[in-house]
Amino acid sequence: MKNKKLKDKKALSGIIAEIICIILIAIFAVVLVSYAGKLTNQMTQHPQQATITDLNFISSSSVNATVQNIGTDNVTLQTATIDGNAAIIAYTGNQTSLTVTPGNTGYFTITLTNSNTFQNGDQYTLTLTTAEGKTFDYAEQYISNPPL
């Protein structure tokens, strides 16, 4: 009789072990699917990609800039800084931002604020910020009287 009770306990232990294994496998599967979903989402997003292709100083306080969208999503430019200082962006018309569609180029003028001026021979870094918070930098040296 004692032998039969022992066999029943061993059988019960095996079933519990199998249930624990199934639960662990299910938890691992949920974690794996969650991670794969996040990875897939990151891979399918199209980050904004643009490059500032030209800066043309038109005065000691203003510069024309050209930006090209090299990505697959629209790039909406909203703010600009020059060496970390706020600058005013002028777009055509009364726009408050400039949207550049994929494969196209946008043009605008940037003016220094607070009566600041560019100094001959100094290098300046223009940083553009998009509506989504992505930044693009470009550095150029200011030469007041460039040779023709």
Itemize the secondary structure elements and their pairings.
Elements: H1 2-44, E1 50-57, E2 62-69, E3 75-82, E4 85-90, E5 98-100, E6 105-112, E7 123-130, E8 135-141
Antiparallel strand pairs: 1-2, 2-6, 3-4, 3-5, 3-7, 4-6, 7-8
CATH class of the largest domain: Mainly Beta
The residue fraction in helices comes out at: 25-40%
- Radius of gyration, CA atoms, in whole angstroms: 30 Å
Helices and strands, in order, run as: HEEEEEEEE
Helix and strand content put the structural class at alpha+beta
Q: Give the CATH H-level superfamily of the largest domain.
A: PCu(A)C copper chaperone
- Ranges where pLDDT stays below 50 over 5 or more residues in a row are none
Report on the architecture of this protein.
- With 148 residues, the chain is an alpha+beta fold.
- It has two domains: 1-45; 50-141, PCu(A)C copper chaperone (Immunoglobulin-like).
- The chain is built from one helix and eight strands, in the order αββββββββ.
- It has one helix at 2-44; strands at 50-57, 62-69, 75-82, 85-90, 98-100, 105-112, 123-130, 135-141.
- Strands 1, 2, 3, 4, 5, 6, 7 and 8 form an eight-stranded antiparallel β-sheet that branches.
- The mean pLDDT is 82.
